[in-house]
Design brief:
Elements lengths: L1 E2 L5 E2 L7 E3 L5 E3 H9 L54 H18 L1
Antiparallel strand pairs: 1-2, 3-4
Length: about 110
């Protein structure tokens, strides 16, 4: 069922997905996908899936080398970056402090 703008419910039509090539030829999507993948889709067992987490839900890591949740944050003191010469700081906070000092020095020289 689908909802219409007027709030009515109507039966949805089950139409096969098609692909239209540049010549205007219509072909079933399943046929195009079978050509691209070397054959029709085959079922896959859970054991055949590689790279899956050992546990579900996966354990969220606590280091930069492990996974992080979508709500994590990094403070300017912990995010590293390449120092901006002649400075030597390699954290965002340190680089900002060095840049602020350079700006102050330039403004004082004017």
């Amino acid at each position: 069922m689908i909802d219409t703008p007027g709030g009515e419910h109507r039966q949805a039509l089950a139409a096969p997905a098609v692909v239209v090539d540049p010549n205007g030829t219509r072909r079933p999507l399943s046929e195009v996908l079978a050509e691209l993948t070397g054959g029709p889709a085959q079922p896959v067992t859970w054991a055949e899936i590689t790279g899956k987490p050992a546990t579900y839900p996966p354990t969220v890591g606590t280091t930069a080398a492990t996974a992080a949740t979508g709500n994590h944050t990094h403070t300017a003191q912990t995010v590293t970056a390449t120092a901006i010469s002649p400075g030597t700081a390699t954290t965002v906070q340190g680089i900002l402090a060095e840049l602020a000092a350079r700006i102050t020095a330039l403004e004082g020289a004017a």
